[in-house]
Amino acid sequence: MAKQRPSLLLLLSLISLLLSPPPAFSFSDESPTARRILVLVDDLALRSSHSIFFDSLVSRGYQLEFKLADDPSLSLQRYGQFLYDGLVLFAPSVSRFGGSLDQSKVLEFVDAGHDLILAVDSNASDLVRGIATDSGADFDEDPEAVVIDHLSYAVSDADGDHTLIASDNLIKSNVILGDKAIEAPILFRGIGHSVNPANTLVLKALTASPSAYSANPKTKLSSPPSLTGSSISLVSVMQARNNARVLISGSLELFSNRFLRSSVQKAGSKTIYDKSGNEQFVTEAAKWVFHERGHLKAVNVKHNKVGETTEPGIYRINDDLEYSVEIYEWSGKSWEPYVADDVQVQFFMMSPYVLKTMSTNKKGLYSTSFKVPDVYGVFQFKVEYERLGYTSLSLAKQIPVRPFRHNEYERFIPAAFPYYAASFSTMGAFFIFSIVYLYHK
Amino acid sequence: MAKGTNDAKLLIQSLRKAYAATPTSLKIIDLYVVYAVATALIQVAYMAMVGSFPFNSFLSGVLSCVGTAVLAVCLRIQVNKDNKEFKDLPPERAFADFVLCNLVLHLVIMNFLG
C-alpha cells in the first residue's frame, strides 16, 4: 500500500497537468457565462466561512480556484490568453497583490470583457479602494468610517453601535435581482461608497436608508459626515460598455454564512424574518454578474423589398422595405428568445428619418416594414438597444438610396398639366389666329 | 391736382382715338399678343404657388407663350403700312415667315414638354 501510493500520486498529478487548462466550458460568445473563476482571499478560512455562497456557484457549474491575494504565483494571463473568466476579490486588506497581478492588470481583465465581484470591509486597503474607484464606486476617504444607521439597524444582541444595518432599499430590476421579490431585509456591516450621478454605467443595487451616515463609531463626530442618507450605496453594480459586469460591495460579511443563515429584525418593526434576504440577494446578483441573465445577442439582420427575398445592394426612394433581426437572451445554459415590445430600428443618415418599434413573433424574431423616405443618400439601419441590466445592442448596416431614374417618373406629371394646357392652347390660338387674319374682311 | 387727372383723362382719350384708327388686321394681331402674354403670366403665377417641380414643362409652357408673342409682334412690325423700314416687304412673305417660325417653335416646345 505504502509503495503503491507515490506512483498513484504521480499518476494523478500527471493527469491533472494534462487536464489544465480546462476544455470546452470556457467563456466564449456562444456560451457567455464565465466558467473559470479565480477567488482571491486574505485568509483561506474564508473558504469555509463563506461556503454557502461558493457552493452555490460550484453547483451552477463554475470552477473556482482559491488563492491567497499575496500568493507569488498569481497571474491572470499567460502568453496573452486569460486563464480565468471571472474574478472574485474577497481580499480587503491586501496592500499588494502577489505574482504579476496589480491594479492595472485587474482593470485590463475587466476591459477584456470579464466580470469582477469585489467585496471590502472596514480595513480596506488603498489597492482595493483604487480598484473600486476604477469601476465607478468611491469609498469614503476616512479609513475608520463605517456605515452607521440609528433608525434602520438590525436588532441583535451584538455591539449596540448600530453598525449592523438591515437594508431593503433594492434596485427595481428583475434582470439583476431575479423575478422573485426579496422579502427580508439584507444584513450589512461595512463601509459605504458613493456613485457619481453623472455616470450612467453604475447602478446602486442596495442603498442605505435616508437615516444612514458614514462615520467612525468610536469617536465623536467633529463635523457633519460627508456621506449621508440615500447617496450612500452599500452594493453597486456596473456594466461597462464592453458588457463586462462588476459588483462592488462595502461589506464582505454580506456574503458570509453567518449573515446568510441569520434571522433579521429591523429596528422599529415588529416582523422577525427567519432568514435574511442575503442569500437570495447574493445568489441572484452573482447570476447577473456572471452573465447568466440579461445577456443579449442579435443575429441574422435581414432587409429586403416587400415581396422579394434577396437583399438588394441599393434602394430607391419611396420603396417599401422590410427589416428583421433575431434577438436571443442567454439563460445560463442555452439561448432563449428575447421577448420585449420596445426594440426600435432607425433609418439613419445624420439623424433618424424613420424610427419604428419592431413587432415580435415571440420566438426572438423582430421585424417591421416601412417606406424609404423621399431623400437619397447613404443610410444605415441602426438598432441601439440599451436597457437597465441588459447588455447593450448596437447594430448598424449601411445601405445606399438612389433617386428616380429619368424613366421611373409618371408619364404625364399631374403638377405639369397647366403647362401642357398652355402649350396646346398656344398652338390652337396660332391656328385660329392665322385663319382669322387671312380671311377677315 | 385736378389738372393732373384732367391731363391723364385727355391722354387716355387721345390714345383711344388713335388706336381706333388702326387697321383691323393689326388689332387682331394685338389681341393675339395680349392672349399669349396673359397665358404666360398665369403660368408664372401657378409656378410661384406650387413650386417649379417639372421645370422643363414650366419652361416649355412659358416659352411657347412668349415665343408666339414675339413672333406675332414681328409680324405686326413687318405688316404695318406706316413702317418705312419694311416698305418693300410683301405682307404675304411676312406671314409665311411667321407660319414657318411658329412651326419650328411648336416642334421644340413639344419635345421639351417631356
Automatic annotation (TrEMBL), chain A:
Pathway: Protein modification; protein glycosylation. Residues 1-26 form the signal peptide. Keywords: Endoplasmic reticulum, Membrane, Signal, Transmembrane, Transmembrane helix. Residues 36-289 form the OST48 N-terminal domain. GO terms for cellular component: oligosaccharyltransferase complex. It comes from the Eukaryota. Residues 303-441 form the OST48 middle domain. One of its GO terms (biological process) is protein N-linked glycosylation via asparagine. It is a single-pass type I membrane protein. InterPro entries: DDOST_48_kDa_subunit, OST48_MD, OST48_N. Coiled coil: none annotated. The keyword Iron-sulfur does not apply. Pfam families: OST48_MD, OST48_N. It is found in: Endoplasmic reticulum membrane; Membrane. Component of the oligosaccharyltransferase (OST) complex. Subunit of the oligosaccharyl transferase (OST) complex that catalyzes the initial transfer of a defined glycan (Glc(3)Man(9)GlcNAc(2) in eukaryotes) from the lipid carrier dolichol-pyrophosphate to an asparagine residue within an Asn-X-Ser/Thr consensus motif in nascent polypeptide chains, the first step in protein N-glycosylation. N-glycosylation occurs cotranslationally and the complex associates with the Sec61 complex at the channel-forming translocon complex that mediates protein translocation across the endoplasmic reticulum (ER). Belongs to the DDOST 48 kDa subunit family. This is Dolichyl-diphosphooligosaccharide--protein glycosyltransferase 48 kDa subunit.
TrEMBL record, chain B:
Pathway: Protein modification; protein glycosylation. It comes from the Eukaryota. The chain crosses the membrane at residues 31-49, 55-75, 95-113. The keyword Repressor does not apply. GO terms for cellular component: oligosaccharyltransferase complex. Pfam families: DAD. One of its GO terms (biological process) is protein N-linked glycosylation. It is found in: Endoplasmic reticulum membrane. Its main location: endoplasmic reticulum. Keywords: Apoptosis, Endoplasmic reticulum, Membrane, Transmembrane, Transmembrane helix. It is a multi-pass membrane protein. Component of the oligosaccharyltransferase (OST) complex. Subunit of the oligosaccharyl transferase (OST) complex that catalyzes the initial transfer of a defined glycan (Glc(3)Man(9)GlcNAc(2) in eukaryotes) from the lipid carrier dolichol-pyrophosphate to an asparagine residue within an Asn-X-Ser/Thr consensus motif in nascent polypeptide chains, the first step in protein N-glycosylation. N-glycosylation occurs cotranslationally and the complex associates with the Sec61 complex at the channel-forming translocon complex that mediates protein translocation across the endoplasmic reticulum (ER). All subunits are required for a maximal enzyme activity. Belongs to the DAD/OST2 family. This is Dolichyl-diphosphooligosaccharide--protein glycosyltransferase subunit DAD1. It comes from Rhynchospora pubera.
